[in-house]
């Protein structure tokens, strides 16, 4: 052993994992002592025994050993029943001394409300003694945090007590802590052990009210669900928090400022990764009053626009109720339709979050992080668009983007299915539109409420031309655009980083002389057929009756008798229903100049194809779908009614999904049969289902939009 090369000795040491064997190797000679000591004392385990506490203190008091300690792990499970007072004193002295560990980075405290008797049987410890020892050790550790440099603290199986017992927590406010993990004993475990259902206090009791360095927070209940009806998190804020993990945490039925959900949203500007493990929503009464996961996901999708990753395990999205005897149990009456809506909404949320990575991969290469160690985008100063951080587009990037043949890239996508091309298409256009933001926003935009009988999704945006096109009456023609979104998503003003999407579309047509109007409408699951089309009808009628309201004194008046309506995808379906469904077409006040139908299905039952669940929810049963789909409504009109319809301009992308191509051909055939001639059509060359609208104002792929403008102007003569 004496003559072995240092490299070989080092290899031997690295392959020994047993602490006992390593301690034996330390005694071989000075070389082994030097190599082994950092490994042996890098991580110290402290047990709930007086001897272990004294050994720990001895290491702390030995400078040559203390310098190697990076991590301390405490396990409170007793080897036998001890004199609690003596043990608490020994542990307190030991943990108060860890300030002498100059390189300590992490402390992990594992509390177990039981001990192993001499017979080997697990025995529940007295709740009083357990809670007392837990408080003693926690107070010692938190006291140490005032001066310690450690950055990670993990507390496992904590029995939460009333907040008044944790007055020492404020010491964490100015500590250099970057990671805090808090695992609490579940409500069921507490009641079984202590006989009390009220012992669990607020999760916030062990959290510092603030901390400027905290980046990672884990709140977990490993043995079962934890629900504190007095969570009391309203005053907590960590400006650097980037990762939040919730495990077995129950969300309140009614969101409040004190709740976990509000805590998540309060950190939307900094949060980059969110993990939910076996989380549930609390149902206090009727299932109809439950806080649906679908509404949670949809809210988070809109507000948590800074997220780069969201992880939800298969056991989350559950619903629980409080049973007097069994504690929190699964709430069975929540039906399969709710589960489908929850799953669908979660998928949309995850897709939206994934867009950030796709965008980064497109312009910085796969695997390139959007932030450096300081949280700033690579190669650039920190920048933020709203609450969503994007890589700043430098002069070099602008030149690169402008030189990219974006339509060549789009046309090479081999897939045509919407889920496959959605994110990649957006990732291609978002930076280009962001670069053109100043030009896009030269067009004034105003927002109006078109239906004051309800409180949501009742507004429309009006875009005003700089150089208006004039009708023969000297007024400005109007284009109403109805966006798509699969019947259950969409907004006239999209969140960052997509905010330029419909803003660009409105500006494109306004730049070409048309007052452009984009209304919101209600979505699945809130509404079903024909409510979305009724909302569009109400918006159109409001425009007709409020020309003076939307007009600008320095411009010619809007011409409500020269109004066109264009819908895309699901929005196209709503415009078709508006024009073809008698209860709606007969109550639409203006005589529309033209209908522009863009890439929406003509019928829903296609062999070998299946429309998404939201389509089925909107139209109803299979029988109802066949009665309500656009082709059925078309066939239900008389020849005279067909003849009196406005001119129709069908528009589609060159690379639409198979289902839409099939219905497109059938639609053209039906129009030709009933109106006596094939309508003029526009096919957007190189485009997929998503890209045409996003190309407007990008400088590339806009030709189809110019053709639409030409078609509309021809009908003003």
Automatic annotation (TrEMBL):
One of its GO terms (molecular function) is hydrolase activity. Pfam families: BD-FAE. Residues 460-572 form the BD-FAE-like domain. InterPro entries: AB_hydrolase_fold, BD-FAE-like_dom, GDXG_lipolytic_enzyme. Keywords: Hydrolase. This is BD-FAE-like domain-containing protein. It comes from Rhizopogon vesiculosus.
